[in-house]
Design goal:
about 300 residues, mainly beta, seven-stranded antiparallel β-sheet, 5 helices
Length: about 300
């Protein structure tokens, strides 16, 4: 049930209304953005909702069932607000979104909350238009929560389950060899003088440059020349002199956990559970001659 003020309720009952929609985005890094479909900026709840950002939304529907209510928003990129680089870099992944309506002619009547949720899939077109899916809170109720038995570790290196201290495996270096937005080198890095593949599945975090504050996983790392290949290109160019922090990766296998990190005690895997071959075996399976066979 939505709770609104008496004045706003009376306004909604009138034949002609002066309503405008507003929406606020809060990214996981704490940055907030506020927009409105009104033709002028609106100051609501102490935040200025910008009218210069062009967008349109689908109809808002709700049901009493546990079906997930989704809403799509289509907008045009604006250098001063939402940019394609930031979207591709994942800065808006799982950002919290609040959508509400106001009477723009009398903002003292308060707000009517329409939807609250999180950004889901976002697509970007070459023409400078993005389409974002807003997933309601019920989306979390349909998500599968739990763990499965796996021969590979389910933890991420350094998280609260893995507990590996990343400090001894983390180094800071400077780019002095350019390739492209997903390929660079740091040949002066003494800390990178280790075997090929040592940093595979690790993470590079940029400390300076156009990609400062952004991270990307390492696809392949070669000791010769300390060449790093990223899984995806960075949204902005990598330049000479950019500094980055890199830590080694983990392939989540038993031997790596034991020999590289000495962390078997915290390993989140079942190394000796039977696989699919064991499940398919049958004690009455015929042998090569056509007679009965199988294990005895």
């Amino acid at each position: 049930m939505k709770s609104i003020t008496t004045n706003l309720k009376n306004h909604l009952a009138e034949e002609v209304t002066t309503l405008a929609n507003c929406w606020s985005i809060t990214r996981r890094d704490g940055q907030q953005f506020h927009f409105t479909d009104h033709d002028e900026d609106l100051v609501v709840l102490g935040n200025t909702h910008l009218a210069e950002f062009g967008y349109q939304q689908t109809a808002v529907t709700s049901s009493a069932a546990l079906a997930v209510d989704n809403l799509e928003v289509t907008g045009i990129f604006d250098v001063a607000s939402i940019t394609s680089d930031d979207l591709r870099a994942g800065l808006y992944d799982f950002a919290e979104v609040a959508l509400f309506a106001v009477n723009w002619a009398d903002l003292t009547q308060g707000i009517m909350r329409l939807r609250r949720g999180y950004l889901g899939e976002v697509t970007v077109s070459p023409s400078g238009i993005f389409n974002a899916e807003l997933r309601g809170l019920i989306q979390r109720l349909v998500a599968k929560v739990g763990q499965v038995y796996t021969p590979e570790c389910r933890a991420d290196l350094g998280d609260r389950k893995c507990r590996v201290d990343l400090a001894p495996f983390t180094f800071t270096e400077t780019v002095n060899l350019l390739g492209d937005a997903a390929h660079f080198g740091a040949t002066n890095g003494n800390s990178l003088a280790v075997a090929d593949g040592y940093y595979n599945a690790g993470v590079v975090t940029w400390l300076t440059g156009l990609n400062s504050g952004r991270s990307m996983e390492v696809k392949n790392w070669g000791a010769s020349g300390a060449i790093t290949y990223l899984f995806q290109a960075m949204p902005r160019p990598i330049t000479l002199g950019d500094t980055f922090r890199i830590y080694t990766g983990c392939d989540k296998r038993h031997d790596t956990c034991r020999d590289k990190f000495n962390n078997i005690v915290n390993r989140q895997a079942e190394d000796f559970i039977p696989g699919m071959d064991a499940i398919m075996q049958s004690p009455s399976a015929p042998d090569a001659s056509g007679g009965g066979g199988g294990k005895k």
